[in-house]
Design a protein that fits this description.
Elements (H helix, E strand, L loop, with lengths): L5 H6 L8 E6 L2 E5 L8 E2 L3 E5 L11 H22 L3 E6 L8 E7 L12 H4 L2 E2 L1 H16 L1
Antiparallel strand pairs: 1-2, 2-4, 3-7, 4-6, 5-6
Length: about 140
């Protein structure tokens, strides 16, 4: 399966999945979402992926679950410190993937109230590749402390 798995390929630096690597922490990879067709990425859309094949939340070991909880909280804090969103939402989504992954989505001040929480990333400021790399570096630095 590992040869056909797009997330394993991304972990090897190959395959169709993009994004900017933020960090590897305690069995998880953290990526900033890849740019869309317009060349911009939704600023602050971060994805946490398990290092190993564990497609469901309940497939994580107790140690991994604890590591995930701390990582999620540290990422949310880093996003709030760096970008000043009103909220950071966390959603475990991703059917048909062999790795656990969770999305963190920022909702920025001024987002229209009729925008559902799960579309907050679509209403987020768009960032070019340089801005994404810079944010990834700043978040990485915060996670290291």
């Amino acid at each position: 399966m590992a040869g056909d798995c797009p997330i394993c390929a991304r972990h090897r630096g190959e395959g169709p999945l993009g994004g900017e690597l933020v960090a590897r922490v305690d069995g998880f990879w953290v990526w900033h979402a890849a740019p869309g067709q317009d060349g911009g990425a939704s600023l602050g859309h971060v994805i946490i992926e398990s290092d190993r094949h564990a497609p469901h939340l309940d497939d994580l070991t107790d140690v991994e679950a604890g590591n995930l909880g701390r990582l999620r909280a540290h990422l949310a804090r880093a996003l709030r410190d760096e970008l000043r969103p009103e909220f950071v939402f966390a959603a475990v989504i991703g059917q048909r993937m062999s790795h656990f992954h969770e999305h963190l989505l920022c909702r920025f001040p001024g987002t229209a109230e009729d925008v559902p929480w799960h579309e907050s990333d679509e209403a987020a400021p768009r960032a070019d590749a340089a801005a994404v790399v810079d944010l990834a570096r700043r978040i990485h630095t915060r996670l290291a402390h």
